[in-house]
Design a protein that fits this description.
7 strands, 3 helices, TATA-Binding Protein, seven-stranded antiparallel β-sheet, alpha+beta, globular
Length: 142
């Protein structure tokens, strides 16, 4: 059963990445989200972001996915950091720690999950973002 779910999710992600028209992304404001990002409704995404299927390793969907989601955005790392500082609380994520640096780290919890966001510059005006979701077994609640 788990193998079937993993296969289905993988196929959906691959097929959605093959779409010729990509709709803009947004966080909480309700605009269109491309199919590859639709599996992660508990996370906001900057407009014009593109998932890296080669580096993304995620299981599940909805509010219960775990693993790492990797994507690029055409915005600089500082703007992406500010975006997550603004948008995460709107989805009821509680900030635990943040470090703004060459590779910025942000840690949040919500319900029974913890989330780490790494934002790094790709050497241009674009940024690479890695979001890792894991179960929160610490017992700490927002």
């Amino acid at each position: 059963m788990l193998k079937n779910n993993i296969l289905i999710i993988t196929l959906v992600l691959i097929l959605s990445a093959c779409a010729t028209e990509k709709a803009p992304l947004s966080g909480v404001d309700g605009s269109a989200i491309p199919p590859a990002f639709a599996h992660f409704p508990d996370i906001p995404f900057p407009d014009k972001s593109f998932i890296d299927l080669g580096e993304t390793k995620a299981l599940g969907s909805g509010d219960n996915w775990i693993g790492s989601l990797v994507f690029t955005t055409p915005y600089n790392a500082s703007s992406v950091f500010d975006f997550y500082m603004s948008e995460m609380p709107k989805l009821k994520w509680v900030e635990i720690a943040t470090v703004r640096a060459k590779i910025s780290h942000m840690t949040y919890i919500r319900d029974s999950r913890a989330l780490q966001i790494l934002v790094e510059s790709d050497g241009s005006e674009a940024a690479k973002v890695t979001i890792t979701a894991i179960p929160n077994q610490s017992g700490r609640r927002p």
